[in-house]
Amino acid sequence: MADVKVIAGEIFQDQRGQLSSINNFRFTGVERVYLIHHPDVRIVRGWNGHRLEKKWFYCIKGSFTLGLVKIDNWEQPSPDLKAQLYALSEYKSQIVCVPAGYANCIKAKCPGSVLMVFSSLLFSEAAADSWRYDSSLWVDWSKEQ
Fold it and tell me: Where are the domains of the chain?
């Protein structure tokens, strides 16, 4: 199974404003894209796992903590799995590439944060590949400010 990858991007600024890019990201396998708007830092969205679907996460506004867990048993995953945490921010252009076989969970660090998500499956396919777990598993989100 593939590992999570982070692709570093670039941020350019001058008198005209700012340009954020991820020129090393290739859209191979991307079937759809959507935005998650988080109005409240108390909301924890997840855990949502996918056996087949790959995802790519990019913060376009504000900041998020992204938690990822490689699932060991889809029916009853171990409560002892170790989560990988990633800090995503509009001030650091990067995309987190998540292979199939992981669950993800997100929490905004500031109100009004927006996360862009790319998916390898069409919506109908992704809905059939969705595994939901309690957000309190694997990470104490009250400590993630």
Answer: 5-135
State how far the Cα of 17 lies from the Cα of 11, in Å rounded to an integer. 10
Give the pLDDT confidence of 90-110 residue by residue, as tens digits: 999 999 999 999 999 999 999
pTM above 0.90, yes or no: yes
Integer Cα distance of 46 and 41 in angstroms: 14
| H-helix or E-strand spanning residue 127 | helix 123-127
Q: Are 105 and 135 in contact (CB under 8 A)?
A: yes
Please state which CATH class domain 5-135 belongs to: mainly beta
- Proportion of the chain in helix, strand, coil states, percent, rounded to 5: 5, 50, 45
